[in-house]
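HUMAN: Can I see a protein plus its fold?

ASSISTANT:
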Amino acid sequence: MKASFLKVLSELQSRDLTPLKIRAVFIDGKRFGTLGVVVALGVAEDGKKYTLGIYQANTENGASCLALLSDLERRGLPKRGVLFVVDGGSGLNSALEQKYAVHDENQRTAVRIRCYCHKWRNLEDILGKDSPAALEASALFWAMRDAKDLTEAKALAVSLERILKKANISALRSFQEAKPDLLVIHCLGLSARLKRFFSTTNPIESLNSLLEEDLRRVKRWRDSEHFQRWLATAALKSEKRMHRVRGFAGLKVLPAAISRLCVKSMIDLNRKAA
């Protein structure tokens, strides 16, 4: 039995990602009792979802996230042109900024979308859940997510900023910090269905729920290897339970769209190579 579990762990940790044609990656941290991991979920061009990797770490810090990203690249994740969907965790975002310069429109080699649900919960906490300002801001915030194009989304963002400025400057700053990563979803040429899919970290949170369901039977981990064997087995099992992305045909536009958003950095890289 142990040999079988070790084989599954090795399969997950060494799987070649190149043939999967991963276009987007969701990353999130998860705790199982006293143990923590950073989990990466990939979305392939054909709409299938794959557990790309797990990295055991006590917290979702920059070092652990960088280690996970480097391992994914080693196994075939493209070094540029990938869409990352994340929450507001400082460690993960710091790693993405360090590795792909996602915060710099002139230098980035990958694109980051911040989870709308996480950002709205942050704003709601600052404003007060049932306050008049929160109710007014909520309508504008979600209308911005569902806007038909970038022009409409920007106009809604301006209106939202007026409300936040009047109600709570801290809420305004919180929104403005994430604003570029919220609006970028309208620059990718995606269908309305895919915009909604990529606007939250729900897909990886669903994966984490499946992992938790499978691992809850274990009350005590003998050591790290024992924990990771079970986690890898549950991760590969969960792939079979995850549905293909609806409207996945639209994912074919992602590489070109991301390349356009990274065009200056691509030109600079080509010049250096020449």
